[in-house]
Amino acid sequence: MSKVQEQIDVDVPVTAAYNQWTQFEEFPMFMEGVEEITQIDDRHNHWKTKIAGVSREFDTEIVDQVPDDHVAWRTTSGDVKQTGMVRFEPIDATHTRVMMEMDFQPEGMAEKAADMVGMLDRQVKGDLKRFKHFMEKRGTESGGYRGRL
Q: Among 15, 56, 12, which residue's Cα sits nearest to residue 33?
């Protein structure tokens, strides 16, 4: 397993950052390589990705979710094996620190080589930068799930 930890400060209140992150079907708007996410129910999502020309499909389950604090997930089936958590920490009333941790099992020689040179770290860092830009440009979330799982 490989571990990735990245963080970024976003110029929006914690509630806005958290609410937007719960809009899983909008991840393709700021996550590179994510082609589509279908939300099955409050806990389950189906992902379609294409990274470096390799298409993958997998399912995830939200295992823990606390509004304005964190969302934790794990894969349940498919081509990808990972667990992760994104945390939201208010810096002040209008700024939020978004911190992502992810454990990932690289499959095959290409993924193992990419992992060795830090490609996953750069991917997550880029996704967080795009999330920051997405949120700051909009100024508000497009929706949100406030339930606790």
A: 56
pLDDT for the residue 115? 61
Q: Give the chain as a 3 state SS string.
A: CEEEEEEEEECCCHHHHHHHHCCHHHHHHCCCCEEEEEECCCCEEEEEEEECCEEEEEEEEEEEEECCCEEEEEEEEECCCEEEEEEEEEEECCEEEEEEEEEECCCHHHHHHHHHCCHHHHHHHHHHHHHHHHHHHHCCCCCCCCCCC
DSSP H helix total and E strand total for the chain: 3, 7
| Chain segment 85-140, per-residue pLDDT in tens | 999 999 999 999 999 999 977 676 666 666 666 677 788 899 999 999 999 998 77
Q: Which two tokens stand for residue 55?
A: 């298409």
- Distance CA(147)–CA(149), nearest Å, equals 6
- CA gap 42, 110 in Å, rounded: 34
Is residue 4 within 8 A of residue 98, CB to CB? The reply is no
Mean pLDDT along residues 42-64: 91
